[in-house]
Design goal:
mainly alpha
């Protein structure tokens, strides 16, 4: 049951990130010309798409990496430490990217709901409010312990063997995180660029409203 929930979460996260990257791509070039808050909104969406894909790839790597580490004859205890450090680093990367950008989107959705006062804008603002509250509570509960574990791994241990084991743990964990982030970046960028080529916002506006020159 837990495995099915994890798969469902990863699929949902992948779909949402794909949608974010595609939406961003529709307006990427145009946002450069318009600038201002619209450009910031598009860039924030791009960052969230990268973070979302990074989480998906990170979890996949955490699932499959023990197989390769066991094949390399790595001690089981060290494998568990690698998994823990990788998980903590991916989580902290998510916190640093999604929470601040989430605040920006949340505030913007509240502003839109206040100005438009439509059912859609109010529901979106309510959803974003709930998401931001949950994310903030999650960070308050889990970030300190994650930071503590990372610091312990990076700076703890005094014996020579402990330092050697920590070096292996740190190098492999950093490799996993870098691969996950690069996967997230290249996936989001590929989707964004494809959508950017396929859609021209200015041409669409002119087609819908030919009176506008």
């Amino acid at each position: 049951m837990a495995v099915l929930l994890l798969i469902a979460m990863l699929v949902l996260n992948f779909v949402i990130s794909w949608s974010n990257a595609k939406y961003v791509g529709y307006y990427w070039t145009e946002s450069k010309e318009i600038g201002g808050s619209f450009r910031r909104y598009i860039v924030v969406g791009y960052i969230m798409a990268i973070a979302g894909f990074t989480i998906v790839y990170g979890y996949i790597l955490l699932i499959i990496s023990p197989v390769f580490l066991q094949m390399a004859d790595i001690d089981q205890e060290i494998i568990l430490q690698i998994e823990q450090l990788s998980s903590d680093l991916i989580y902290l990367f998510t916190v640093v990217t999604i929470v601040p950008t989430g605040f920006y989107i949340w505030i913007r959705s509240l502003k839109t709901a206040w100005e438009e006062r439509t059912l859609d804008s109010i529901l979106i603002a309510g959803w974003n409010t709930n998401s931001q509250i949950c994310n903030t509570i999650n960070v308050a509960r889990n970030a300190p312990s994650a930071i503590s574990r990372v610091a312990e791994t990076l700076f703890g241990g005094s014996s020579r063997r402990k330092k050697k084991d920590n070096t292996i743990v740190i190098l492999v964990a950093i490799f996993i995180v870098i691969v996950a982030i690069l996967g997230g970046y290249f996936t989001a960028s590929a989707i964004m660029k494809k959508a950017d080529r396929e859609y021209d916002m200015f041409a669409d506006l002119q087609r819908r409203h030919p009176e506008i020159q």
